[in-house]
């Protein structure tokens, strides 16, 4: 896109339901690549605040023992269908792989729905607060339609049928289920360790990064995962920094002319590239999982 608002102009010509994937892909790859990555990373913590989800994740010990790989695998599986399309060969293979992984565990249907809602609403809320431009209605609706289709392909039942109903489910489920458990804290701290691991090993940088993450989480979420409140000065500094970043990107940032694809990056976990079948824990049962819908 040669124009700072070129992606948005293109999005405005599309239909939020029929062209849902294209809208999400363009918005994510051109205007909000980093914002999507940050917001989806923070969305992990919201799922950990649900005791039934945290218990399963804690039992697998995937975050504690293979935290970097677990984080990279999730990012790559999501990116495969976000960037290639839900009906592409690689997109369908990625969703089949997710179904294979999830089939090993007794996951409640409502927990599946809630996790799906975090992928819709956490990026929307983050960008509304810290994005260099606001999302338009078509982008928000497209996120709903695309992720709802993902839910259908995963075989999730009783998915809310409208954007408003999906958001209501998200809010009410958090109010009903967010609760501190030792499992929630263990999985959250293991994930925080992964995020801090992206930084150079400089003195005090790790603790400062932890404080920064605490500052980005709301109080009910922090309590549920056992994180302390950030120091007030850090809280104010983090908020000011992201708001300054938004202004800088809006008025002086470089125009993104090429899509920023996660799948094109080099990951430390896979220095020689990866196959979708390698993502996630290795399964004893190699049968192909079906894709519903």
TrEMBL record:
It comes from the Bacteria. It comes from Turneriella parva (strain ATCC BAA-1111 / DSM 21527 / NCTC 11395 / H). GO terms for molecular function: oxidoreductase activity. This is ER-bound oxygenase mpaB/mpaB'/Rubber oxygenase catalytic domain-containing protein. Residues 49-242 form the ER-bound oxygenase mpaB/mpaB'/Rubber oxygenase catalytic domain. InterPro entries: MPAB, MPAB/Lcp_cat_dom.
